[in-house]
Amino acid sequence: MSFKEGGEGGEEKLELEDLEGIGSSTAEKLRRAGINTVSQLACIPARELEEISDLAEGRAGEAARSAREAVFPKVMTAKEYLEKRKCIQPMTTGSKNLDCLLCGGLEPGITELIGAYGTGKTQICLQLCLTVQLTRNRGGLDGAAFYIDTEDTFKPERLNPIAKALGLEIEQALDRISVFRAINSDHQLEGLRVAQEYVAQKKADLIIVDSLTAHFRAEYSGRENLVFRQQRLNTFIHRLQRISTIHNTIIVVTNQVLDVPEVIPGVKPARPAGGNVVAHGCTFRLWLERSKGMTKVSVIDSPKHPRNSTWIALTEAGVVDAEGPR
Ligand SMILES: Nc1ncnc2c1ncn2[C@@H]1O[C@H](COP(=O)(O)OP(=O)(O)O)[C@@H](O)[C@H]1O
Ligand SMILES: [Mg+2]
Questions:
Q1: From the alpha carbon of 151, which atom of ligand 1 is closest?
Q2: Which positions ≥6 away from 63 have C-beta within 8 Å?
Q3: Domain boundaries, the chain
Q4: Predicted pLDDT of residue 266
Q5: Digit-coded pLDDT (tens) for 213-240
Q6: Rounded to the nearest whole angstrom, what is the distance from the C-alpha of residue 55 to the centroid of ligand 1?
Q7: Which ligand lies nearest the alpha carbon of 120?
């Protein structure tokens, strides 16, 4: 939440040419490089801009600085920051238990769902594609979703009973979900570029990446590839963060777990894949575990949520509240 007028609204009317030092030819070069708005320009690092545009040496840095000065306040008080955050409406997950765990629902930033297979990560993601469409007075954003599917687990027919349970008309609901089937990690990065366009054109309010880590882990296995894999994953996560910063987008990613050797006999420890890069890159981290036919969801890292847990059940009608084992 960094823009002067609460999100991108304040700079919406500002064109690239309105910035100090940017004339029509520089603006044209920026647009050719895919930089269409002042907020995009404000968030892109100069080095990256130099790579993708044909701006003369030094011009990229100047242009980006000029945009930053126009868009970001230099400093604000915590009180001003709090006022700005008041206009953020959390988005419902469709489960009161989960919403409660998240102090009201999902908010802009990256929320990570971590869990073994079958814990309900994809089911939650599918449901979010529908809850984002609910009206604001029902906890939705009256919006649309962009789904980057890397594991071929997006099954549109699965949405039918969930939409019905939420009282959404299925044909309309399906039209408001865009799916990008990413076949490898390069393609996943490409999907993010498309997602950003959708968000910028107000055709998406929520981005799902299911899964964040699978392609990177499969393509760069082995210790010798670890550094490169982490760099690529870092690039992907940074771009996600940038989209969220520019547009206040809610982003949900899924992540796998790694089994680690038992230290305490009988206790099977596990940790999220992706190491520190993912741990630092995601704002809110939720851990999912299957137990007694239900799923326990715990906050394992967040700058604002307490480390609580709650229970959900995966049903035909979607993700619903559960009471947990008695
Ligand atoms: N139509 C359905 N009715 C009831 N439960 C379902 C249905 N579809 C999937 N599930 C539940 O969701 C589980 C799979 O969850 P999923 O979100 O795909 O796991 P993952 O964490 O691997 O993404 C299944 O094992 C099942 O319990
Ligand atoms: Mg899945």
A1: 23
A2: 19, 21, 22, 26, 30, 41, 49, 55
A3: 7-71, 96-321
A4: 66
A5: 999 999 998 889 999 999 999 999 999 9
A6: 50
A7: 1
The tokens describing 18, both together, are: 């309105």
Residue that the structure tokens 């210790």 belong to:
223
Whether 96-321 and 7-71 are alike in CATH topology: the answer is: no
Domain 7-71 falls under CATH 1.10.150.20:
yes
User: Where does 96-321 sit in CATH, by number?
Assistant: 3.40.50.300
69: Cβ contacts below 8 Å, ≥ 6 apart: 20
Residues of the chain with pLDDT under 50: 1-11
- Residues 6 or more apart in contact with residue 83 via CB below 8 angstroms: none
Model pLDDT, residue 3? 44
Average pLDDT, the chain: 92
**Alpha-carbon gap, residue 25 to 17, rounded angstroms:** 9
Burial of residue 178 (number of CB atoms within 10 Å: 0-12, 13-18, 19+): middle
